[in-house]
Specification:
658 residues, single chain, Rossmann fold, ATP-binding, alpha/beta, 13% strand, six-stranded mixed β-sheet, DNA binding
């Protein structure tokens, strides 16, 4: 049983080989599978939320429906919507309809559910899914979008135990940082599998290691915890190797003794024979080594001085300029990272550079010796019944066989699979039986088989275990060709990228001469400045709106001296001819209904205002200043509407108090 392990109550698995059983362990914790032996004990009535690597939803359900379904107030909101629709259809509702609406409203109020829909939309927006995606059926979304919908739904449910399988896949850095803040702020007990070292250190208080069928819990987290884990594992494996070596030395002596004993005396030394069997088991208990990947097999095509030139390259998608006027002359051995929020065109840029998407404008020119390999986010289709080796041979491009010959291609496929941690004994395993990380390594093997000297990598660390991620880093460190990569893994990008292409959604590809850490620091500074500017603009808009209302109020026209502090009831403080202190008025039926709904309406409008403020700050950070200005105007209008509702509430409250 896993329980709280620190302030955030996080029990985390971080560094096991693909296929070691990480996803199976999570399914056991979530109660989706039952153990073959032993038991999983949970607190009575404890709720468990689970994010699988694939989201499955009912046909026709929208993204917002899926997110709302995880909230305790979802059923009450649906009942309230149904009661409201019934009243809208019937122009003369009876007492039963009004009572149903009152009951539904009371239940929503008790569950604090008025803001649930706004919070759900805000969660989707923070994960890069705007209103256009929120209202679309889940079946029409991409794999990455479905995954983010599942993550938003798991967070909205606010369970006692949250189980996440690779939660950062398909998220950009801004969304990952938002997720970190959510997980650490709510204090939920968390169990997750992740390959993102920075995310793991920010979110977790302990590390659960699976190693050759055994589990080892390391009770530390926070910054530097991954390095501490690696050191602890190294020391444990060294002790295990020393113990096995000592057992082997003793085993040789015991083997000689066993051979010398007459068969008739076997009963007299039964205990020693049993000890011999235990000693044999200990001698075989050697630690498993880390995955070691080297760039080899087919080798690398020699690279000339001219690698790849993009001149005025552009591409439109659905009438929008995603990439425009991109010019770059790639140099041999360059290491470039591509960064930007989801939807800004990172994958489209790689498609254009790889030649996988036709240019809408400009030109693309390859050098004579250039050989490009493109590792896409989506793995290619797999034929029914294909094994690792047969699939790899099918994926080998024509240029590979032309360069190496058919038999050499087969030999290279075997070598590359082995060097990617897939041993020869498993080469005839069906691809359908592989884990997600093993399939990813198989896809990488197909890319390397072409002897590339230019590697284009789109989220290469997705579904890889941490050992394989580190092995991939070592592979790229030894690769002499040009590398261009898109990745949300901050530690991976910090190790690989020497300069960056920055995309902000306006079609322009900006070159950033600096490391990934320097870019993140600059982005944080820009975000803080944009948020401060948006707040200042909103404050100024509110001030101007209040001055305008004060100047145009009837009281201001009659008494200019009172314009700065108008009365709430519009009477200018008179005791006659209005709702002055000398008259005690009661609320009418309609006023009572209005008063009862105003507080919830003000809260709802406040949630919308907060969401607008967050979107305005995000737009300013991404460089979309036109959108930021439009959102700033909407924010000012929202503030003005809240002020008006608040004034009306105060007016009705005074009447209600008499």
């Amino acid at each position: 049983m896993l329980g709280p392990a620190g302030a955030q109550g996080c029990a985390v698995r971080g560094d096991c080989e693909n296929g070691a059983g990480k996803s199976t362990l999570l399914r056991l914790l979530a109660g989706l599978d039952e153990p073959d032996a032993g038991s999983v004990v949970r607190r009575r009535n404890a709720s468990v939320g689970f994010l699988a690597q694939e989201l499955h939803a009912e046909e026709g359900r929208t993204a917002l429906d899926v997110v709302l379904a995880g909230s305790p107030a979802a059923a009450a909101l649906r009942a309230h919507d149904a009661a409201t629709s019934a009243l809208n259809v019937n122009p003369n509702p009876g007492g039963a309809e009004l009572a149903a609406l009152a009951r539904a409203g009371g239940e929503v109020e008790a569950l604090g559910g008025w803001e649930v829909r706004e919070r759900a939309a805000e969660a989707l927006a923070e994960l890069g899914l705007g209103p256009d995606v929120a209202d679309r059926p889940v079946s029409m979304l991409s794999g990455g979008q479905r995954r983010r919908v599942g993550l938003a739904a798991a967070l909205m449910a606010a369970p006692d135990l949250l189980v996440l399988d690779e939660p950062t896949n398909h998220l950009d850095v801004a969304a990952i940082q938002w997720l970190e803040r959510k997980l650490t702020a709510r204090g939920t007990t968390l169990a997750m599998v992740t390959h993102d070292r920075a995310f793991m250190e920010a979110s977790c208080t302990s590390v659960l290691e699976l190693d050759c069928g055994s589990a080892h819990l390391h009770s530390f987290g926070g910054p530097g915890s991954y390095a501490r884990f690696r050191q602890a594992r190294k020391e444990r494996r060294a002790a295990q190797a020393n113990a096995a070596q000592g057992a082997r030395i003793l085993l040789r002596k015991e083997t000689e003794w066993i051979r010398r004993q007459p068969k008739a005396r076997g009963t007299k030394a039964a205990a020693r024979v049993r000890a011999f069997a235990e000693l044999t088991s200990r001698a075989r208990d050697t630690p498993q080594g880390d995955t070691r990947v080297t760039f080899g097999g087919a080798g690398m095509q020699r690279q000339g001085n001219k690698v790849l030139v993009m001149e005025g390259a552009g591409c439109d998608v659905a009438g929008r300029a995603v990439i425009c006027d991109f010019c770059y002359d790639f140099a041999p051995g360059e290491r470039i990272g591509v960064v930007g929020r989801n939807g800004t065109g990172k994958t489209t840029l790689l498609d254009l550079i790889a030649g996988a998407r036709p240019l809408g404008a400009g030109a693309r020119t390859e050098g004579e010796t250039t050989r490009v390999a493109y590792l896409t986010q989506e793995a290619p289709a797999v034929a029914e019944g294909a094994t690792m080796l047969s699939h790899l041979r099918e994926q080998a491009d024509v240029g590979t066989e032309a360069a190496l010959g058919s038999s050499a291609t087969n030999d290279a496929a075997v070598v590359i699979l082995e060097r990617l941690g897939l041993p020869r004994s498993r080469h005839r395993t069906l691809v359908q039986a592989l884990s997600g990380g093993e399939r990813r390594r198989l896809q990488l093997a197909a890319a390397l088989l072409g002897r590339p000297n230019v590697l284009l990598l789109d989220e290469p660390t997705n579904d890889l275990d941490l050992g394989s991620v580190e092995a991939l880093e070592a592979l790229l460190a030894n690769f002499a060709g040009c590398v261009l990569t898109v990745s949300h893994d901050r530690a991976f990008m910090a190790d690989i990228a020497a300069r960056l292409f920055v995309l902000r959604g306006d079609g322009v590809v900006r070159l950033f001469e600096g490391s990934y850490e320097e870019y993140l620091e600059l982005a944080e500074e820009e975000e803080r400045a944009a948020a401060a500017a948006a707040t200042a603009a909103a404050d100024e808009q509110r001030r101007q709106s209040r001055n305008q209302r004060a100047a145009s109020s009837p009281t201001a026209a009659a008494d200019p001296g009172s314009a700065a502090t108008p009365s709430r009831n519009g009477s200018g403080g008179c005791s006659s001819g209005g709702r002055g202190a000398s008259r005690k008025l009661r609320l009418g039926f309609r006023e009572a209904q209005e008063f009862a709904g105003l507080e919830a309406e003000i809260d709802r409008m406040g949630a919308e205002r907060d969401a607008l403020s967050a979107h305005a700050a995000a737009a300013a950070t991404s460089g979309d200043y036109v959108e930021a200005a439009a959102l700033g105007q909407r924010l000012a209008e929202a503030e003005q509407a809240i002020d008006q509702r608040t004034e009306r509430w105060l007016e009705l409250a005074e009447l209600a108090e008499g």
